[in-house]
Amino acid sequence: MAAIAKTGLTTGNNIVSALPSSFEALPISEPSTILDSDGKEIAKFYEQNRQPVKLDDISPFMRKAIVSVEDERFYEHKGIDPQGIARAVVSNVTGSSRSGASTLTQQYVNNLLVNNQELTGAEESTISGQKDYADKIRELKYAVSIEKEMSKDEILEGYLNLVLFSGREYGVQAAAQHFYSVDAKDLNLQQSAMLAGMVQLPNVYNPINNPERSLDRRNKVLGNMLRAGAITKAEYDKAVKSDLELDPSKSPSGCIAADDNAYFCDYVTNLILTDDAFGETKQDRENLLYRGGLTMKTTLNSKLNKKAAKDARKAIDPKAKSNEDVFSSIVSVEPGTGNILTMAQNTTYDPAGGLGNTVINFAVERSLGGAGGFQGGSTMKPYTTLGWLSEGHNMWDTIDASRQNYSGSYKWKASCLPEGSVQTYSPWKVGNASRGFARKMKVDYGLYWSINSATVAEAAKIDLCSITKYINALGVKAQDKGENRTPTDFTPVNPSFIIGSEKITPLSQAAAFAAFANRGEFCEPRALTSVTDRDGNAYKVKKTTCSQAVEEQHVSDLNGTLSKIAKTRVAKGTINVPIAGKTGTNNGATSTWFVGYTTGISTASWVGRLKGQGEDRKENLMHGALINDQRAPSMVDSSTYAAPLWLDFMQEAVYDYPHESLGSARKAPVVKKEPSEDSSDSKSDSKEDSKSDSKKESSSESKSEEKESKSDSKESKSDSKSDSKKESKSDD
Questions:
Q1: What is the three-state SS of 377-436?
Q2: Which stretches of sequence are listed as region Disordered (predicted)?
Q3: pLDDT category of residue 201 using cuts at 50, 70 and 90
């Protein structure tokens, strides 16, 4: 009334007439939550921490306190309180302090208008102290309108869920949790009075920052309640003698509060923020995430992920000064679904940085918060074996691994390229770290000991596109290759990809090897199983998407060799279920791997450097370096850190999921020899075969096993350089 009088009655009437009879209140901001596969909360995201509750779930003391201090005639007026306005006018004219006259209904309207402006990005403001008379008139009209549409209890409930109490704590439930660690329904009298007193000036009456002011304000609210008849004298006397009784708790927003699950949390948020199913623009998607009250259920086994993080820290101590640029990562995928079960690393998720802190997720690609991948080393060799099998060859075939030099003009068959072949143009020297392997051997034997010259000899006899076909079908991408360092499909342009020169991500390798555990059926990795908003509306998320990427028998043949690697060279009798896997190490051991699996879980473990990935600088080399504040072995390979990390984790994890047979590898046919007329020739041939096939391999294997006891066969290092002039050294 006073506001209208000051602007002139005509102007006021014009404003009132121009306003619609009601306004559309946009949904109030609510936090979004990420849940694990069992429905346990992983993290919460909010601009305004608010947990709406029904009026019946708010303490009666709280309801009485807010009415007593903010609008004692709330249940009598119809949105506007003429007596309150008159009292405020007199107080403001005769007193030294300013007094407001807004009813709870008007305050509710004002908060709704502020919420609308925040959601739409409007520039005007209806915040107290910034309102002009037109704003006040609008507030009055809408208050009258809302009183016709809503009951008093509905208005009170809406107000108590909407109003700011402190910082980013909005609504009585969030405030009760923040200051007292209780639910709104359990607030006692003095707690209710303290919270009600905060509403007028949340920062000034914050009990943590200003306890004396807060206590004085609380007692005044208790006095109001006594005068209004809301409480008895006995209740007042008891409450006013109590202290603030604070028991504060924090509910931080974002992944920083997700502890061991933080990197998976970060991956999920990046999935939301890069998917137009959740909004046309990134700003729209951010608004939805921080204000839309989403419930995001995920595939994460948080219990298992906690162990993964613990094991990652055990492998590489994040607080050891020597480990400033040495990290570990472990990620698991479920065969048959693609569900990401774990995603952990040795560091703490903290944007402030410092020793042992980072927000970079080593398991995923750069666009989703990752590091851009790491050289795959010999974990890439199974794909060459699949190419070999697909062209009609066998695991028992003999190949000549003695060739270690290929000229720059050598033509590698590549039918998927326009020219049908590819050349390196510079000589390519393919080296093996361990001596005695530059000779003829069976394909199975070459893969088991991960001999570079054996893998390259296989590739030289087949079409490189047969290899890239499998890599791409199994979802592995070459990282940081495309425009703006985006992932790309593998191509045969640089043949050194066959022994791991390209960067790949641990997640993609875990998902690809999961297909080996699933009879060749590849399932795209997925993290979200459902996303719904506060009203129960469902958003589109990736479904389980699987396809037969590899022939089942070829997978069984491959598993026959990879099982021997996992059982005899990594687990060494500690896991008594069918397992398989492949080691991997690049030059300089700046990227070391073990990717292994059962039929129920596929896990990639990685240990290496983030910044100093290249072996061209001596200080980057992991061989003999200080790691975990101790001197590392002179020959670091996957058996040093990555395989033990995998083993620590999988020794327990395998029993949480199915662990059935990985198939039966075909065996070489038995060839019966015809009796020779010249028995001496036959004897000689037989002796020579025995010497070359049995004694020679047995001797080499014996020597290799002797080396393995020291450094797991001195794990031949894989060429991590695309420059074919560099000598490629194979991994184990």
A1: HHHHHHHHHHHHHHCCCCCCCEEECCCCEECCCCCEECCCCCCCEECCCCCEEEECCCCC
A2: 663-732
A3: very high
SS3 letters across 111-132: HHHHHHHHHHCCCCCCCCCCCC
Q: What pLDDT does 601 receive?
A: 98
In contact, 258 and 42? CB cutoff 8 Å = yes
C-alpha span between 430 and 460 (Å, rounded): 12
Distance CA 518, CA 598 (A): 9
* Strand ranges (E), 137-245: 164-166, 169-170
Which residues are CB-neighbours of 654 under 8 A, at least 6 positions away? Answer: 575, 577, 579, 598, 600, 601
Alpha-helical segments (H) within 151-210: 152-162, 172-180, 189-198
User: Letter for the amino acid at 63?
Assistant: R
Give the strand pairing for 32-35 and 295-298.
parallel
Q: How far apart are CA 172 and CA 160, in angstroms?
A: 6
Burial of 439 (0-12, 13-18, 19+ CB in 10 A): middle
Cα–Cα dist 240/361, whole Å: 52
Q: What is the pLDDT of residues 322-357, one digit of tens each?
A: 999 999 999 999 999 999 999 999 999 999 999 999
Q: Which residues contact 490 (CB under 8 A, 6 or more apart)?
A: 468, 471, 472, 476, 477, 478, 497, 502
The pLDDT tens digits for 605-644 are 999 999 999 877 888 999 999 999 999 999 999 999 999 9
Q: How far is CA 86 from CA 92, 96, 104, 131, 386, in A?
A: 10, 17, 17, 19, 87
- Cβ neighbour number for residue 652 with a 10 Å cutoff: 12
**Distance spanning both ends of the chain, measured CA to CA:** 86
Q: What is the DSSP letter of 654?
A: G
Average confidence score pLDDT of the chain:
87
Integer Cα distance of 92 and 99 in angstroms:
6
**Residue type (1 letter), 24:** E
> Using CA atoms, how far apart are residues 687 and 241, in angstroms rounded to an integer?
102
Buried b vs exposed e over 447-464: b needs ≥16 C-beta within 10 Å?
bbbbbbbbbbbbbbebbb
Rounded to the nearest angstrom, the gap between the alpha carbon of residue 442 and the centroid of all alpha carbons in its chain is 41
Rounded CA gap, 692 and 491, in Å?
37
Question: 564 and 670 in contact (C-beta within 8 Å)?
Answer: no
pLDDT in tens, 129-139: 455 667 778 88
Q: Which helix (H) or strand (E) holds 138?
A: helix 133-149
Structure tokens at 415: 């039918």
Q: How many Å apart are CA 526 and CA 318, to the nearest integer?
A: 28
Task: Using alpha carbons, list the distances in angstroms from residue 534 to 35, 52, 114, 294.
Answer: 15, 10, 20, 6
